[in-house]
Structure formats: structure tokens, C-alpha cells
Amino acid sequence: MCEKIRVLFISSFSSLKGGGQRSLYLLIKYLDKNRFVPFLIVPQPGELSEEVSKLGVKVFFVNFWRIRTLNVFFIVLSFVKLIKIIRQEKIDLIHTDSPRQTLYGGIVGKLFSIPVIIHLRVADNLLWLDKILYVLTDSMIAVSEAVKRRFKSIDRRNKIYVVYNGVELDVFVPLERERDDILKIGYFGRIEERKGVEIIIDAVKEVNNERIELVIQGDGDRKYMQRLRDKASGINVVFKSYKKDIVDDIQGVDVVVLPSLYGEGMPRIIIETMALGKVVIASDIPSNREALGKDLEEFLFKPKDKIGLISLLRKILYNREILEEKKHLLRRRAEELFDIRINTKKIEDIYTKIIKNRDTKKRYMLPQEWDPQKETYSQEEMNERIRKTIFSRHFYHVIKLIQRLHIPYEKLKIAEVGCGTGTFSLILGLLGAEVTLIDFNERILEIAAQIFHSYHCKVRCIKADCLDSPPPELNNYFDIAVSGGLVEHFSGNYRMKCIDFHRQIVRSGGFCSISVPNKWSVFYWIIRLFRELTRTWRISLEVPFSGNELRRIADSLGFKEYWIRGNFSLLEDFRIYVRGLVSAVVDIFPLSLQEKLRRWKKEKLLNSSIESNKDIVNFCHKSVRKIETSVVQDNFLIDNFSAVIILFAFK
């Protein structure tokens, strides 16, 4: 039997006053409990948490602080609470229903590789925030095609599904109501300006017929509600307070009017009224038109069009038979499109598909994706790379560990796996070490060999795949195996396979040095999310590591001794990633401007760099001697939150 999928729902409200929360309650209620285990987070106790608790669902209370307040303590506290729930309940899937909750859930989902879904319930475009929501989520469920169109310009991965809100057809059952001379018109829902409720009052006043009674029921903006009361003087109107269950109230009217000005996703009042077989008069905004369909479009009027609404009211007032004529059509449409059981099944299928995609997700980058981004590197560019590498804590710790091995550089054997330009091993090669570069992309090996030859540094290049067993001649051969920018491009068990390749080629007593991006680095995620938002993130697979994951792998592979260290101080990380952010911004510019900026940068580098090969070799020797006599203390913040962390592991 398959393991149940554990779904964490996060709601922005605790009451059932909003249609979104009513829809969420029904989704949880009708979710197949044999296949799914639902959990719910709400800001505080309320109707929603009470009703969901009655279903036997575990409810948590977390108030997610607005990120724009920059109240770091409470924002971090919100993250900590969410992470604790996710780890404690072993959550497989996060389902949110509002932007703020999605920001929190999306970031945590990225950190823990948990799929995130947002339920899109309004058609309002949130501009730049919509782009962030798109990047942070794995899938989106829109309650209508009108809502889906909100993301039309950015949905390049086709990850938006449309599933209509559902109604309990066995609860909302048409009943015969005794007809009288009074035409009862009802408005049910939030009372606020964007709902356009005042136009109903204006229209009823214009009709000026004593045979019309208006019912306005709901909760909302008190000032607006008072304005409505003042405006309604002189007509037959009843104001009623919010009720959780309004089936009987809807049954008590002949017609329901929804005059919304904008923003509706798929109004519950429309689908519930149709399920009761009652006519709905609605403003002609996309979601309302979609709900009513072509056969009922005669009951639409333009937003704010008082004359159009008056015409429809008079049409029904003087032709009551139309209410009975449309009854079966209305009910049939509700049965075909808005059955809660059918629509919940559609959402269950989306959950299953997302989890299946997660489990069969891409495990490694394709061969062509490893092709070099640059074909040539100037001496000045390489000198700059050498300087940056020498000033890193990664290089510092490697030199200290070489001292521990008591091997002179001239007898040191080092391999760089997934070599790229081979900068790290080039420095040791310039000190006299025997260098072997290993990569499965021949062109990368050719470019790296050219770089080494330009420094008159000997190198051996071997084509091999780090997911396979090493060539026999490499087993237990090297004193050091290093890599950077490699292992994070694999997922699942392939990560351990790649690290194990390093272990196999190192002799007993030698060590591996593997640098990877840190999933707990704020700087890393800022740059990555910015590039994803601006579509300049061109890496198909990159999964950052946590220190704990590296430790688990090191334990599993049986390393004799290991530890994790950060690569740069947080201040240096900040400087590096500010430059990275500038580079990301430049990548948005037109290609011609990008080329001009890069030429300017290259000329600046040329003017500031005049070292000969001899100069750079002397710089390497001088820097290493300085490192050998210096002491850098361990630092908790750097080792846990630096943008790059390094696993040092002795075999």
C-alpha cells in the first residue's frame, strides 16, 4: 500500500466569512483520507479551525508577519514555527491560498525540497509579486480561466491548473418556494466598495415598486455599510448580519444579485445559488461570465451599469415564469461544473502528479548542459581567479591540511573532479604539485589544459564520469581530491555517488575537499530568486546543500574524519553577492549594452593587472607561506551561513 501524502494547508484567515476559506474547508472535508493526511495552519482560533478540527484534522496556529515590515525577529520566528511543523509532521506538500503565506511556504519549500501549490482565488494582478509567487511555487490552482489569465504572460512552464470551486449538491438542493406578489432580491457576501452593493439599492429605488424586497446580508466595512443604510432609506430593505450557514437565507429569496466591480475569482454565491436552482444576476466581469456560461449570459449587466440592472430586475418582476423556466438549467450547470466531490478529485490528481514528478524529478544535468560557457580565458582573468581563490577560507584550510599530511608540494598528487578552469589545482600545480583534471566533457578538459600550458604548468587530463566507477589507475592514487560547482548539480542518490567518486580516488590518509552552495545562505537565495524572476537563471538543476546533508553523506561513506567550513566571511559574501546582483541586473540589459559593459570590465582588468607568469607564481608562494604561519579561528556564523560551504573529509 502506498504511503499517504501529507498535505499542509496554510490559510490567511481563521473565519469562514470569505469564500476562499469556505472552499478550503470543503476541500479538506472531501479529501480522500485513505490517500491524504491534511494539516492546517491558521493565524488564530476561529470558525475555520473549529470546523476543520471536528473533521479530525490537526490544526496549528501561526501568525505570519508581513515581510515588508522588516521585523526580523518575528519574521524569523514565523519561519522557525513553520519549519518545526513541517519537520515534525513530515509534510510532503504545502498548499497555500494567499501571497504572504506563499512567500513563507515557498521559501521553506525551496529549502527542504517540498513542492508548494498556491490556490489562486482572485483575478487581481499583483504585478511583480505575481512573478515571485510563480517562482516560489511548483504548481498553481486557479479557480477559473479568468484567474489563470492573470499569469498568462509569465506562465512559461504551463504549471497552472483550473479547478472550479465546489458546492455540496446534497446540501444545496432546490426547494419549492411559495410565490407571492413580492419579488425578493438578495445580496449575500462581503460588504465592501469593490462589491458594488450600492448599485442594487440605486436600481431598486429607480424601479420604485412596492413589490420588491431587498435583503443585504453579510459583514465587512462598517463605514460602507452605514452609507448603504443611509442610502436605502425609503425602500423595502432588510440588513442581516453574517451567518455561517446561509442556505435557508438564499432559499428565502427569488433572485440573487452580485454586482462586483472587479477581482472575483469564482464567486461561491453564484455557484451555490445555481445549485439551488435560483437565478443569479451578476456584473459582466470575466469570472462571473465564466460561472454563468453562455446559456445564462442574459442575466449579466455591465459593472456600475444601473440602467442594465434595472432592466433585468423589471424583466423578472413582470415575467416571474422565467424563474421557473431557468431552474433546471441552473441546477444542471451546477451539477456539471461545481460538484465538490468531482472537483476535489481533480485536486487530488494534481497532488498525486506533483508528488510523482518530485519522485521522478531530474537527477542530473544532461551532457550538453555541461558545455563550457566560455571558450577562452585571458591571463588577466585567470590571475584574478587565482587571487580570489587564494583569499578564500577553502584554500586556507586545504593548505593547513596539506601541512598535516607532511608532504612537500613537489610530491603532492591532486585531482580536481568536474574541473572547469581548474583554478584551484592550478595554484597547487604552480607550487610543484602533480595535477590531474577529471571531467566527462572533452571540450572543458581542452580549455583547462590550454590554461595550464599558458602558465607552463604540467597537467594530466582524464575523461571520466563521476557517476561511474573511477578508472582503475585512479583508485587510491591521490593525496587530495577537490571539486567546486559540481555536486550541487545532482539530486537524490547521485549526490552521494559523486562524492563517493572523490573518496575512491583518494588514498588512505588523504582527504577530499568539496565545495557546494549553502541552502541556508540568504545571499545565495536572493541572487537565485532574482535571476529566476528575471529569467536569467540558466542552470537546469542546482540543489544547494545543508551542512547536515553533507554530514549524513560523509557518515554513510565511512570517512574517518570530516568537518564543514564556510568559504568566506558574511561581509565578504555580501560584497561578492552585491557584485553578483549587479551582474544579474546587467544580464537583463540588451545584448549590445551587455557587450559594452563586459568590454569595459575587461579593459579595466587589463589596466589593473600587469603580472607576468613569474609574478603570479611568486604571489602563490608568498601567499602559501603566509597561510602556513597564520591561524584563522573557526566561526559559527561563517561555517553555517556562508554562501558556500566545504566538506573536508579524510579517508
Describe it for me?
- The protein is of the alpha/beta class and 651 residues long.
- The protein folds into three domains: 5-166 and 342-359, Rossmann fold; 183-337, Rossmann fold, CATH 3.40.50.2000; 367-650, Rossmann fold (3-Layer(aba) Sandwich).
- The chain is 45% helix and 16% strand.
- Strands 3-2-1-4-5-6-7 form a seven-stranded parallel β-sheet, with helices on both faces. Strands 16-15-14-17-18-20-19 form a seven-stranded mixed β-sheet, with helices on both faces.
- β17, α20 (493-505) and β18 (506-517) form a beta-alpha-beta unit.
- The model has no long low-confidence stretch (mean pLDDT 90).
Biggest sheet details: 7 strands, parallel
CATH superfamily label of the largest domain = Vaccinia Virus protein VP39
End-to-end distance, in Å? 41 Å
Instruction: State Rg.
Output: 32 Å
The number of helical runs is: 26
CATH class group of the largest domain: Alpha Beta
Q: Mean pLDDT score, rounded?
A: 90
CATH architecture of the largest domain: 3-Layer(aba) Sandwich
CATH-defined fold name of the largest domain: Rossmann fold
Task: Give me the side-by-side strand order of the main sheet.
Answer: 3-2-1-4-5-6-7
Strand content: 15-25%
Task: Give the number of DSSP strands.
Answer: 20
| Helicity level | 40-55%
> Which structural class is indicated by helix and strand composition?
alpha/beta
**Low-pLDDT segments, ≥5 res:** none
